[in-house]
Amino acid sequence: MFSPWYRWSGRRDPQNHCCINVATYGPQGRFTMTDRGRPALRQSRDVLQVGPSHMHWQGDKLVIELNEISSPPVVGRVRGRIVLHPEALFGTPYQLDDAGRHHWQPFAPIARIEVDIAPGHRWQGHGYFDANYGSAALEADFNYWTWGRFPTAGGATCFYDAELRDGSARAQALRFTADGRTEQIEAPPRAALPRSLWAVRRETRADPGYRPAQVLAMLDAPFYTRSAVRTQIEGCESVGVHEALDLRRYAQPLLKPMLAVRVPRRRNWHFDGPMP
Fold first, then answer.
1. Residue 61's CB: how many other CB atoms inside 10 A?
2. For residue 26, what pLDDT band results from cuts at 50, 70 and 90?
């Protein structure tokens, strides 16, 4: 959804603008997001293949095989495997706007993950798997949103807060448990975080009087930031992944050429063998 090539195409053919985006962090961190044409896409019930990378269900686990080239400033091969083991699968989509043009679906908000990506990234820990989808551009309907997923003793809690262009606001506060239950909870108050390196406004949810804090910077862009954040929910501290997205900035035409440097376009592709 952040491909400048898709925007410049008039958003007429999403399958002609597909990618498997990879971002790793730290001293050997890489970023890959190659916009590929329709010839690079193959799909079946259990497999999604985009050029040299693919993901497929193998029993009850999702296996992601990566073979990508990172974009500037650090160009190089990014190759490896990610295995996601969901504790439970959740099938409910959540509407993010009154018109029903945008949805969020947390498929596996509680999961274990194994990561082995060269160069330099091998670890196990908490995993998460969701999707956003819709029938309109995000910047057409939203000004700003934040999202956070925080592990808890019994599962995970997610907060989704959106400010729409018409001035209204939507909020989701959901508790997920390992046995497959979902509960709408009362969201704790909004709590400000320091602005990002690009001065993107950030906020999350926290118990009254608690001051959340960033514990790890991950990704910073002029319109988007991702980081690990410590907050407190119902008296328990938790460190989770937090995102903030400024769609008013993203809508600015001058950003698209900047993005094109990080998101190269490759129109053609040829598969040498059958689907995995």
1. 14
2. confident
Residue 200 resides in a domain:
yes
Domain span holding position 75: 4-265
At residue 28, does pLDDT exceed 90?
Answer: no
The length of the chain is 276
Residue in the structure block whose two tokens are 């959901």: 174
Any domain includes 117: yes
Q: How far apart are CA 271 and CA 144, in angstroms?
A: 39
| Residue 276 within any structural domain of the chain | no
Euclidean distance between CA atoms 4 and 255, whole angstroms: 9
Tokens of 22: 């990879």
Number of structural domains (the chain) is 1
DSSP-derived secondary structure letter, 180: S
In the three-class reduction of DSSP (H, G, I as helix; E, B as strand; rest coil), residue 5 is classed as helix
Type and span of the H or E element at 262: helix 255-262
* Residue written as token pair 């551009």: 137
Predicted confidence (pLDDT) at residue 27 exceeds the cutoff of 90? no
Give the number of other Cβ atoms within 10 Å of residue 228's Cβ: 15
Whole-angstrom distance, CA of residue 153 vs CA of residue 162: 27
Instruction: Please tell me the predicted confidence (pLDDT) of residue 39.
Output: 97
- Specify if 272 maps to a domain: no
CB atoms closer than 10 angstroms to residue 195:
12
Rounded distance, CA 255 to CA 258, Å? 5
Is pLDDT at 269 greater than 90 in this prediction?
A: yes
> Any bridge partners for residue 232, and if so which?
237
Q: Which residues contact 10 (CB under 8 A, 6 or more apart)?
A: none
* Count of CA atoms in the C-beta half-sphere (13 A) of 122: 5
For the segment 131-156, what is each residue's pLDDT rounded down to a tens digit?
999 999 999 999 999 999 999 988 99
